[in-house]
Amino acid sequence: MPTPSITNFTSSRFALTGFPGLEIYYPWISIPFSVIYMTVFLGNCIVLHVIRTEPSLHQPMFYFLAMLALTDMCMGLSTVHTVLGILWGFIQEISLDACIAQSYFIHGLSFMESSVLLAMSFDRYIAICNPLRYSSILTNDKIMKIGVAILCRSSMLIPPVIIRLKFLNYCRPHFLSHSFCLHQDLIRMACGDIHFNSIYGLALVISNLLLDSVLILMSYILILHTVLSIASEEERLKSLQTCVSHISAVLVFYIPIIGLTMVHRFGKHLSPLVHVLMGNIYILFPPLMNPIIYSIKTQQIRARMQRLFLRGP
Q1: Which of 114, 117, 218, 219 makes a 20 to 30 Å CA pair with 175?
Q2: Where is the G-protein coupled receptors family 1 profile domain (predicted)?
Q3: Cα 255 to Cα 174: distance, rounded to the nearest angstrom
Q4: What's the CA gap between 288 and 44, in Å, rounded?
Q5: For the whole model, what pTM was predicted?
Q6: Tens of pLDDT, residues 20-71
């Protein structure tokens, strides 16, 4: 599959990057990626179905899990057309408007996932540190308000920096680093004044991803302090086991983000293939792993899935 030449571009077209040097293997590479996307959609749909149809799962912890599954499914939907489109040979480039829209959804959904993970850590903190007031604190009304706050935080803070991308002049080679669009990729190709995007983008990362990670860490420090004060070792282990799924989801989300940030910041000398791989891990690893983690580690989800597949609803 030939790589489009930069001379074929207009000022509003950008070349997507698949797997450099592996173009002849795209039909084979598309098979595992198609399986991954199908697993993402099917796995998260099953989690949502199980939570909706099982009355015993109508609890705050599982409402937050449903938010996480919905966010992961939307993340898959936001990138599937460009990632598989390149591998299947349907597309090689993307317009500026489509690129801006895709970057809005990718970054917005990342912030949303971070916010949901923070809400889940708050849920675990209340459940372990203040169990007697758990049901009175996390009422359905409170959960709905938290959900609306997450949606507003994730969708309303990003437009200023994303909209400005439309009015920048892109005079550098129009080759994206990934098979999807990211804000930092477009900024790299701009040759106008990007101070606003750089400063505002950094502020968004600090006020969302960094702040959320710090608050999640603080919640687990408080949880650990409470658990260690429990006399019974069996009760300590039982309390910690309720956090294993969430801790795994946090690691699955933040480690790829840190890796991709390091590659973008310090990996300019690395092969383009490394950038592509890290980008795909960042996009696909959390949506793929979260349903697996929660179906294995959460007894209620696992039991309901076993009944669903073995004996029917």
Answers
A1: 114
A2: 43-294
A3: 29
A4: 8
A5: 0.91
A6: 888 899 999 999 999 999 999 999 999 999 999 888 889 999 999 999 999 9
